[in-house]
Structure prediction request, 192 residues.
Amino acid sequence: MAKRVFFSFHYQDVIDFRANVVRNHWLTKPDRSDAGFFDASIWESAKKTSDLAVKRLINDGLNNTSNTCVLVGTQTYARRWVRYEIMKSFEKGNHLFGVHINQIKDKSGTTKNLGNNPFEYLGVRFKADGSCDSLWEWKGGKWVEYEDLQNCKLQWTARANLHGEFSTLDKFYSCYCWIKNDGYNRFPDWVK
Prediction:
């Protein structure tokens, strides 16, 4: 059965066409369920309004999803609302994974070097009981407490070796390359 996937991406990667290749690859499959997902992402229109409106839009977009796929382009890791989508998905307990898209040819036929893994720039400190103590982001060359999501309430508890510890999110979630890891055929394997 196909899962509902929330796609998180930098809007520039839509303009360059790379994000669309992944989000719309199901169109070339015989049956939508062959792709393994239904797209539950949102567009950037509300990002021109208030921060609260953007958060509500993202939160609503994440409802009834079990997976969040971060489409990793050049600047994705540094985008404020991508970070919020990741952190909110983390809190919610969605399965997160990244897909590098810079090796996909853009509308001009060019590719780029892989972008930075956004999971390496976000972290969590766990309490002694394994619940969330605080969320963190790498910003301005140092770790600072994440301000866009206060009072994190994880829907799950960290494994025992992480109780009382800090960890970056890349310790929990994988990043794949759409081209090198055959995303067209393997995407359903990445969705859980």
Residues 10 and 122 are 16 Å apart (CA to CA). DSSP finds six helices and nine strands in the chain. The radius of gyration is 16 Å.
